[in-house]
């Protein structure tokens, strides 16, 4: 009987031990699962924080970069990012007091940005029963101030009147811009062979009568500082012309006009290659047409 009781107690203790072991195993497994889940949650949270931090840094970087790009684009647009071009052709026929006519042509074209441009300018003059003479200038233009460009280049001259030195090349420097009261201004100095030094000045301004009719007073002058060439001009104010053009703008590309001016020419010096000439002055009148592109 006692043995039976001991056996029963042993069986009960074994059962309790097995049940307790299973419970502990289940608790241990559950705790391990909770620990793994907690670790996974921490890793996920850290990964999310890292992603948010990277996105924040990228956003800050983009905010820093995009304004810089916008600033650069605005600077290029304002200071040389766009290329422009303009061409004007003017032809006119002028008569003097004796009724002698002279054809004058002027071509000006430029291409470039607000800061840097290339100018090409040509003048041609041919009087009746006389050979023509013309000049062509190529200039680099650099903006140095509001409404003002500094220019430098060369001028080629061809004069059929001369038996020698028909073709000459001069260094040319000057400024182009708007002087006070909005007069468009071109002022240049020229240096050529045989110690030739000269200045030129052109001023003009538009005054609107109506939207189609425009008056344009103008002044053109040349001053010879020194000239030791074979066909030397007299020093001082060599030539000048003051006039008034009145044009009608058919459109912005075609503009016929009439022109009345007073012209002065000092004449040439006496050299071994030419005789001295007297000064000449008088009224000039005529008309012409201007094309702009």
UniProtKB/TrEMBL annotation:
Name of this protein: Copper resistance protein B
InterPro entries assigned to the protein according to its UniProt record, in alphabetical order: Autotransporte_beta_dom_sf, Cu-R_B_prcur
Keywords for the protein's UniProt record, in alphabetical order: Signal
The organism's taxonomic lineage, starting at the top: Bacteria, Pseudomonadati, Pseudomonadota, Gammaproteobacteria, Moraxellales
Gene Ontology biological process terms from the UniProt entry: intracellular copper ion homeostasis
Compositionally biased region (Basic and acidic residues): 63-80
Signal peptide: 1-25
Keyword Nucleotide-binding attributed: no
Gene Ontology MF term list: copper ion binding
Domain of life: Bacteria
Low complexity composition-biased segments: 42-59
SUPFAM superfamilies associated with the record: Autotransporter
GO cellular component term of the entry, any: cell outer membrane
Pfam families referenced in this protein's UniProt entry, alphabetically: CopB (PF05275)
UniProt region (Disordered), positions on chain: 34-83
């Amino acid at each position: 009987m006692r043995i039976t009781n001991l056996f029963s107690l042993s069986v009960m203790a074994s059962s309790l031990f097995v049940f307790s072991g299973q419970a502990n195993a289940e608790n241990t497994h559950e705790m391990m699962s909770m620990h793994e889940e907690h670790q996974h949650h921490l890793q996920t949270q850290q990964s999310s924080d890292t992603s948010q931090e990277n996105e924040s840094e990228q956003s800050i970087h983009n905010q820093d970069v995009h304004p810089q790009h916008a600033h650069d684009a605005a600077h290029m647009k304002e200071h040389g990012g766009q290329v422009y071009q303009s061409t004007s052709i003017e032809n006119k026929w002028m008569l003097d007091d004796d009724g002698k006519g002279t054809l004058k042509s002027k071509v000006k074209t430029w291409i470039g940005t607000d800061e840097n441009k290339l100018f090409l300018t040509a003048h041609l003059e041919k009087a009746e029963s006389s050979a023509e003479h013309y000049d062509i200038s190529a200039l680099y233009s650099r903006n140095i101030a509001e409404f003002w460009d500094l220019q430098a280049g060369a001028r080629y001259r061809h004069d059929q009147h001369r038996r020698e030195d028909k073709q000459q090349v001069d260094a040319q420097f000057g400024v182009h811009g708007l002087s006070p009261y909005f007069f468009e201004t071109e002022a240049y100095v020229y240096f050529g062979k045989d110690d030739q030094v000269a200045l030129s000045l052109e001023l003009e301004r538009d005054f609107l009568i109506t939207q189609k009719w425009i008056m344009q007073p103008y002044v053109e002058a040349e001053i010879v500082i020194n000239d030791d060439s074979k066909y030397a001009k007299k020093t001082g104010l060599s030539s000048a012309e003051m006039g008034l053009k009145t044009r009608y703008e058919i459109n912005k590309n075609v503009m016929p006009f009439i022109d009345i001016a007073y012209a002065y020419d000092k004449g040439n010096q006496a050299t071994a290659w030419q005789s001295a000439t007297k000064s000449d002055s008088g009224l000039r009148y005529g008309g012409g047409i201007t094309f702009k592109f």
